[in-house]
Each structure stands twice: as structure tokens, then as C-alpha cells.
């Protein structure tokens, strides 16, 4: 076994090769990008081969790196399948990875309903922006917001909802600043962003308004944090009728500049080989109930 490279270096290389980004690999592995870079560099030194090359803002696999990466992926999948088989003999689990806002605001209050349907299963709901490697057994299913369906072979991507995206603010904020009558009025208000200003820029373009100056405002990374900041009167956030259904219904958030803009949908992603798995079928039904309820509240709200 002395010829085997360190597993931590192999994990770092596999993640970088799959994501095309040292920073994204670090976020997935829970370490800094400098640590990931050091592991990959040490692996290249040990193998005396160049595995990665710069590409745009990220990296790409070299020819040697692509060949080695394919073998590493295959080896990790073998280990993962062995772990899954062993774990299934000891306990039954349903491991779900989900975007934090949807998990915290919409799924968590109803998790008991799913547990009741799956007596004998341990339900694991993991709020995360990272995407699991389903083939390696990191999760049983993923609930994610995508611009288009996940088309990777061997997977199913079931569209749960394609909600409208629209700006929201609190009643107190609207009382102080007034409700915008046009999109030009809207962009002059304090805007709240997620990881960058790109989402607001894309929404405005789709709504028919291209700002002449750069957009500004705090970046809070998560959709539910942006919506919560809007609820607290900090500015205007983009949200949808699924995530903010209860707040819109209660009037703690108000929809501004009603539009029919959509920017993707919520998908349930799982392995096609497990399509008839009873636990996944129960999960589909549970999600259909939740999205059906919130979808009924997703109609445009006229201004007061």
C-alpha cells in the first residue's frame, strides 16, 4: 500500500476535476482553496505528472489528468457502493440534500409527515448549497433549483415547480420609501443580493429593464437570508412564491412590480436505478403535497 497516494489528495483532485474550480472543491470538502491547491500540487509531484491546467477563471483536466480522474472516480464509486451495501444491512436511511432556504422554511416544518410515512427509516435532511455525488452514495436524493433539468446519464430530474421570481419588501420599508411604480424606480431602492448581483441583473433584463449603472447592495449568499433581510426592512430582495409563500400570505412581505419572470425551477434529482424505491416514492408524494400547497399561493398579488 506504500505506492497509494494520500486519500485526502485524491479526494481534492477528484473534486477539482469534477467542479472545474479549486474554490468550489474547497467549499465542498470544507477546507480552504489553498489547502486544496496544496494537495493537488503534492499529488502532481508524487505522480510526476501535470493533472490540471488553467482554464478561464477555473481549471481543466489535462489529457493525463482526465485519464487519471476517470480511474479515481471509478475507485471511489466502488468504495461508496461497498459502504452503502454495508450500511443498508445495519439501518435504513433516506438522506436528502436540499437548498438551505427551502429546507429551513418549507420542508423542516413538515418533516414529521414524511417520517410517519417511512416508519423504520432515519430521515436525514441536509441543508446545503453543495451538490451530492449520488453515484457515490453521498445522498439518496437532491432538491435543487436549476435553470434546466439535470441531464446527466443515469439520473432522473423531476420538476417540482417553476415559480415566478419577483421583488419583495416589508410593509415598513414600503411605508418609508414608497412602492416603486416602474423598474427604473425599483433599481434606485436598496437591493439585497444573494451571492452576487448577477441574479438581480438577469431578472431585470428578463423583466425588460437594463440598468445603466452597476448594481450595489449587500450579498447574503442564501435566498432565505435575503428574503429575511427584506422582511426586516433592510431593502428589496428577489424571491418566489414557493420560498416566501407564508410571508406573502401573512403580509409580512409585499410583492413589488408584479411580473411573470421565471428563472428556473425546483427539481428532485435521484438515480434512475432507484426510480421505484419505496422511500423515494414516498418522498415524491410528500414533496408534491408541499409544493401543491405553496403553489396555490403563488398567483400574482395586486398592489394595495
UniProtKB/TrEMBL annotation:
GO terms for biological process: DNA-templated transcription. The keyword Heme does not apply. SUPFAM superfamilies: Periplasmic binding protein-like II, Winged helix' DNA-binding domain. Keywords: DNA-binding, Transcription, Transcription regulation. The lineage of its organism: Bacteria, Pseudomonadati, Pseudomonadota, Alphaproteobacteria, Hyphomicrobiales. Residues 5-62 form the HTH lysR-type domain. It comes from Aquabacter spiritensis. Belongs to the LysR transcriptional regulatory family. GO terms for molecular function: DNA-binding transcription factor activity; sequence-specific DNA binding. It comes from the Bacteria. The keyword RNA-binding does not apply. This is LysR family transcriptional regulator.
